[in-house]
């Protein structure tokens, strides 16, 4: 497993997005735990979760509790594992994703996440999404207070634009280490944010990184077939004897040294395949072909 830099930390170049283990269509707990353990066995040291990853209206924090149980049950060393969680969103019974960036709400959410994860301080805590009803600087101010209080060690923001990233960086300084935006072959509208992350030394964590190759868990059963227009990824995969998903993740890694993809998984074999992408180095010709397949839809 190759590694990349997140703040002052060294983490695996591929992380695990744990959301599919807790939302609709989730596996039973035995398979869910086996999936996290397979990630750890494969050298993955970045686990991404959130307090809102649960079934609609039920079991808030399910995914955080699951990740905590998986780490506790793992037979190997977990000292280098970074758990990244997020606050500021909710999932009521109607299944919608709500947003609440009130500083008091964020601080209480972080404290609840701290208890569920069973740690002295959360390794990386990220604002899940800006709340249009709350000044962005006030939401980020809650992260600063959590850092000052020692309840979180590092901070990040998610679903943000260039101006918001710059604002967060002014408020948090070098304690801001990550930006988590949607980015994939099918969705490339965060190019400017990716460039800014590289400029500021921030890690860029693409969520739903396999979009166009596989469906996101937000859009339907994950792992199902992608879109024909991204056939170049499948062609390169056939020539290499690997999965299109591996090619996609290797392409993302080649976009910038700031990129650390966090593909979701609900089966051990899926995350093993994704983790192997860290060692797949694509040629300049292959990258040019893949870039050409995505540029018209970026």
Question: Can you put this structure into words, describing what you see?
Answer:
The chain is 39% helix and 14% strand. Strands 3-4-5-8-9-10-11 form a seven-stranded parallel beta sheet, with helices on one face. It has a two-stranded antiparallel sheet with strand order 1-2. α6 links the parallel β10 and β11 (203-204). The chain contains ten helices and eleven strands. 50% of the residues are buried. The model has no long low-confidence stretch (mean pLDDT 94). α1 (29-41) crosses α2, α3 packs across α4 (136-148) and α7 crosses α8. With 298 residues, it is of the alpha/beta class.
Descriptive keywords:
298 residues, alpha/beta, 10 helices
Present the secondary structure layout:
Elements: E1 3-6, E2 9-12, E3 16-17, H1 29-41, E4 46-48, H2 62-73, E5 82-87, E6 89-90, E7 98-99, H3 103-117, E8 122-127, H4 136-148, E9 152-158, H5 162-172, E10 176-180, H6 191-200, E11 203-204, H7 231-240, H8 244-255, H9 268-275, H10 284-295
Helix pairs in contact: 1-2, 1-9, 3-4, 4-5, 7-8, 7-10
